[in-house]
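# nightly structure sweep
# worker-07 picked up a monomer target from the shared queue
# config: single-sequence mode, recycle default, output format = structure tokens
# input follows
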Amino acid sequence: MSASRIIAVYLAFAALAGAQSSGLPPGILLLARVKAHTRQELDRLPNCSCLETIRREIKPPGGKLRPLDTIRLEVLFSEGKEMYAPPGDRRFTAAHPVAFAGGGMIGDGYFALYLKDIAGEGRVSYEYKGEDESLGRRLARYDYRLPATMSGQIVNMVEGRGIVGAIGTFWADPITYDIVRMEMHASEIPPQLPLAENSHWVDYARTKLGEDEFLIPRAAHTRMVKMNGEESINDMEFTECHLFSAESAITFGMQEQRPQFATSLVKEIEAKPLPVLDITTRLTTAITSKTSVGSLITATVSGNVPRNGAVLIPDGATVRGLVRRLEFNAEKGGYYIVGVEFTDIEAGSLRYRFSADLKTLEPVPGVDFTLVIDTTQNKQVAGSTEILSLPDLPGVGVFFVRGPKLDLPKGFRMTWKTRPLVP
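# output follows
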């Protein structure tokens, strides 16, 4: 545990003791700590980039919900703003991400906008709702309300543009003060917007960037319903996150409205992109039903990885990552959906960015990329089955584990094929 995390734990217990001795209503001192910690985290958030995968669905008036498309963007957080580019491109623009989609709904502001709103001073009213089990751990829950007159929430539609208020909920870790999930529903919708509902949720997780950990978005969801019944849904995942530093200033030319932003990886000598390789890993951190989403995990490389007649990555090199997904479904005997993302490999004095697709899993009963479910309704007739599969997500290995108990032990093997990265 880092020194800053130790201090956070100490302050949490101090706050609890202070609340008990002060006679203040439950949650007041904890709220102050959470808000101050969130502002501090936003202030220290470095220039960083993630691959944002957006799966969009749409339901026309009177119709059924259907998939629309999948969009991938490189999102760069720099100096408190979000900028966007196609994956691999380094010409980031401050234009709204809908410019890359040719229409439809796309949200933004997930890195800082929503957290700034709920951590602001004198703008939001709060109500402590106690602690509950959420996302696999004990979290403190707060409901909040942000009036439109003090909100930074802007809704852009073909029919018009307007500022809305927000009614929502956030969950914070009472030990570390991290906000790990927030939900928001638009309120005080201006009459010029034909909008019946606009809602968001965002999951945040500590992610290692360089030598430190930062609180950044892991996943998000947006839903918009128009007055005519048209419904749009976006599901977003943020993967392959890494540090960036500016090689030149951001400039906004009079003729060229796109900002010119040349970037490179921080500590490039320690964060090299890998060529296309097959790499087998062995877990050194067990993944169980008690593991929470966002938990940091480690593995080692199994066997030397050669390249051009030499050993590029030695046997036993350390691989680091996090648990991206961990869901349990109690149907048909129960099964888990597990998602794992490895982000970097340490090989001697070098660090490599690990961006790869999961190809094979250790042959363990009940662990597979697909799940076969018996859907027979009548035992007297021939059986029928349904095969469930999971959508691909760049850099994340997702698979099923059948049964009511999850226990991927240390030593569990996974083989990955790296994907070429733009340095």
